[in-house]
Design brief:
Layout: H1 2-6, H2 12-26, E1 32-33, H3 41-47, E2 53-56, E3 62-70, E4 73-82, H4 84-91
Antiparallel strand pairs: 1-2, 2-3, 3-4
């Protein structure tokens, strides 16, 4: 997440993303699973995803991530993080 490296460590969004990453490391399914018919074509084309989740941050920002791997070893990959307006635009709401 290139933008994450640009955030100030004191920024609320930075702190919330860090907290979310810690939670997702423990349980990748903490987010809401997004139905396949709502997946943006961009994610399918660029990332060849098989699952898609959304994790809502307290500030209104959202993390969109995918999970891959085998049952015993899952990897959570953050695809994007954005505010509500950008999220609605990406998902065509």
């Amino acid at each position: 997440m290139k933008f994450f490296n640009l955030l100030d460590e004191q920024d609320v969004v930075y702190k919330e993303i860090n907290e979310a990453l810690d939670l997702l490391k423990k349980d990748y399914a903490r987010g809401d699973k997004i139905p396949r018919d709502q997946w943006p074509k961009k994610y399918i084309k660029e990332h060849q995803i098989h699952t898609l989740f959304r994790y809502n941050l307290r500030s209104g920002w959202r993390l969109v991530y995918t999970v891959s791997g085998v049952k015993s070893e899952k990897a959570c990959t953050i695809l994007e993080a954005f505010d509500h307006k950008q999220y609605e635009k990406r998902f065509g709401y």
